[in-house]
Write a structure and sequence with these properties.
This protein is mainly α and about 160 residues long. It has one domain. About 75% of the residues lie in helices and about 0% in strands. It has 7 helices and no strands. Helix 5 runs antiparallel to helix 7. The radius of gyration is 24 Å and the shape is extended. About 20% of the residues are buried. The model has no long low-confidence stretch (mean pLDDT about 80).
């Protein structure tokens, strides 16, 4: 009875270890990658800071305080802002910090939770992959849960 080998049973000989590049080259590549990542993220940071500065400058402070101190309306406004801005989740924290003195903590928490999950960009991508009914669920469920958490936070913890 002849024995046959199948591709699943073949054994490969270990390959010799490749030679590592010199330490200086590895540091150079690491710094180049870090610089590229920094330049990729800094544009989002600049856009987020421009938006925060524009809102703080163009909208009267009294209007922001009136909207931002309501336990329910502040959450709804920040959720709408998170959806419309469609900014990177890294910059969300920077933008939320700009509103930390004007808006309630629950609304900031809702903004930070909902923003990375659902925004205009993700909605367009969802519509390209899923049926409309599924997209509605993918938007409504995080929206309602984020709103409930933010409102609960404002009414119960209220920091």
């Amino acid at each position: 009875m002849p024995t046959t080998t199948t591709p699943a049973c073949t054994v490969h000989a270990p390959q010799p270890e490749s030679v590592k590049p010199p330490l200086g080259d590895r540091f150079s590549r690491a710094f180049n990658l870090a610089g590229d990542d920094f330049l990729d993220m800094v544009r989002y940071l600049i856009v987020g800071s421009l938006i925060a500065a524009s809102m703080q400058t163009l909208i009267p402070q009294s209007a922001l305080i009136a909207v931002g101190q309501g336990p329910v309306i502040s959450v709804l406004v920040m959720l709408a802002l998170a959806f419309v801005l469609s900014i990177c989740s890294t910059v969300d924290a920077f933008l939320a910090l700009a509103f930390s003195t004007t808006f309630t903590t629950g609304s900031i928490v809702s903004f930070l939770v909902f923003g990375p999950m659902v925004d205009i960009k993700s909605t367009i991508m969802f519509l390209g992959v899923f049926r409309r009914k599924a997209v509605v669920y993918l938007i409504i469920v995080p929206l309602v849960l984020s709103a409930l958490v933010g409102i609960w936070w404002n009414l119960n913890i209220g920091l």
